[in-house]
Amino acid sequence: MNCNSIRKLFVLFLTLFLSVQLFGQKDKYRLAEAPRWVKKIDSYHSAQPSQGQTEGYYYLLINHQKNIEEETNYSEYSVKVLNQSGIQEVSDIFLSFDPSYQEFIFHRFEIIRDGEIINKLNQSEIKVFQREENSERFLYDGRLSIGLNLTDVRVGDIIEYAYSKKGYNPVFEGKFSDKIYLEYSSPIDRYYYKVIANSLSGLNVQTHNGAQEPAISEMEGAITYTWNLKKLESKITDRNYPSWIDPYQFVEISEYESWGEVNNWALNYYSLNDKDKRTLKDLRSTEFKGGNQEEQIMKIIRFVQDEIRYLGFESGLNSHKPHSPIKVYNQRFGDCKDKSFLLSQLLQSIGVEAYPVLVNTVTTKSLNSVLPTPNAFDHCITQLRYKGTSHFIDPTIQNQGGTLSDYSSPNYHYGLVLKDGVKKLESIPVNENSETRVEEYFVLNGVGGVAEMYVNTVYSGSDADSQRSYFASSGLNNIQNNYLDYYSKLYPEIVIKNPIEFIDDRDQNKIVVTESYTINNFWIDNEQNEGQVYCEFYPLTLESYVNINKSLNRSLPYYISYPLNYHHKIKVDLPQEWNASSENLEIKSDSYHYNYSVTYSNEVLDINHSYRTFTDHIKSDDMREFKSDHDKILGN
User: Fold this and answer.
1) Which residues have CB under 8 Å from 191's CB, separation 6+?
2) Using CA atoms, how far apart are residues 539 and 439, in angstroms rounded to an integer?
3) Whole-angstrom Cα distance, residue 323 to residue 1?
4) 301 Cβ partners below 8 Å, 6+ apart?
5) Cis bond leading into 563, ω under 30°?
6) d(Cα 445, Cα 573) in Å, to the nearest integer?
7) What is the pLDDT of residues 386-421, one digit of tens each?
8) What global pTM score does this model have?
């Protein structure tokens, strides 16, 4: 289960092979003429991109035609090489397919040079590789990549190729859905997209961001949806916008009529027969003994999160179909849907109402605005109901702490709960259960002398979960060195006084990290006033949240960290009485809150910063105020 929003056109690309295996060649693909139902679309070889749109190459034609009844997708590309950079970009072509249900068919592969056609299908080296692009995320989908290495490519050449993939994933049981982008980050001279469907079923169509409606025609029992666009300019977007915003023009098409239909489809795969339920119950009874029901719930959750490692084999049916919970239980690994299905079944075995929930980690809060389709989801979690309250658990997160009432879950916003009778998406409560408190305590051993710095950081909620995973995977020595490098940005001659300490109260989900350092040459000569020295105190950890790109010229919302509840206190034992005055500053908006204070008493200086966010974005109309406020924060 791994579908992401397509933001850029990457038909031609060269990438590092994560896992490379050379297979037999021609048994993985074949050569044939294009299907008879494919409409011939001409490209204009003399076309040039508009001024300011030039890259190393220019798409003269992108042509996609899909026949649902024949389960075949035809694709054709024509790209012109504009300069030497373009040669590097387009000389290596990689096309992927899933051999468990797809057949790959080449139609043509050629270079057009000065009007002459050079057939490259038999002249170029064609290899089949298994690349496993998601292996760094422990996901393996079994897809193969066909690599074509072009020789003798020159500036001015036009590279044209066409191919088909025959066969749709049987997991969808003959139902079709697709997402069609009509804008890209590269310019395109002509863009053609056609879908042929059965006239009895037809397709639901939904356009976004001003995308063109399809031309619809019907003939001989088939209904055709066509988009025929010319001179597409490249789409340039603002940076750093929330993932749930997709600024490109796109169209959704789907044969699914409702979320209820998607739910019924999923329940066919997320079901366990009575015999397997009894087997799982027997396995569970030996693993999770003793305690009341809530204690057993927590034992089961942590078992699935921590003892079932995250690893997925997602070829064909298993792209969306989970493996048997008994198999996952015994082999001790699975992907998100495997772990969620297992968790829900284990909880049901102790009498707790629990269900898998399909979510999307990218579209999150905009999920409720898309057409119903299984492809709307890229992740699976679990809902359980206990004493009348719903709790959402992500079983792929390791090392979580806390009790059931305050267990953290990422802000997925909406999900499809897989249980009988569900007909719509369910709202998932937003999690704001996180806080970080940093206290730096400085002891100054006389003016001009060495300083000691003691740091005590308390993490709670989801911040504690993150730190627990970080410490579990990194080791104290590496973390100590990372912290030392971090502080050396402000204090170049800082050294470790005592080893770092890590205290974890997992039940309360609080982590305390204690550090101590000695800072040599803490005092700095003031070049403006001879004989005068000064020292600096600065909340380095806060800077990363407030020192941000605040361009005013944007049309999209600006993404900010959320939820964020951060407090930084600096306490200084001064070596003598000081002339210091109190200060206060408060900056409030609906999206964030900053508070700053300075107090001094009896040779002790207290400097307090707190910063909290209440949303994950700033509206473009509010950027001027946002920039002004954060300039003030940085000025502090």
Assistant:
1) 61, 62, 63, 182, 227, 228, 229, 230, 232
2) 10
3) 13
4) 343, 393, 395, 400, 404, 407
5) yes
6) 9
7) 999 999 999 999 999 999 999 999 999 999 999 999
8) 0.90
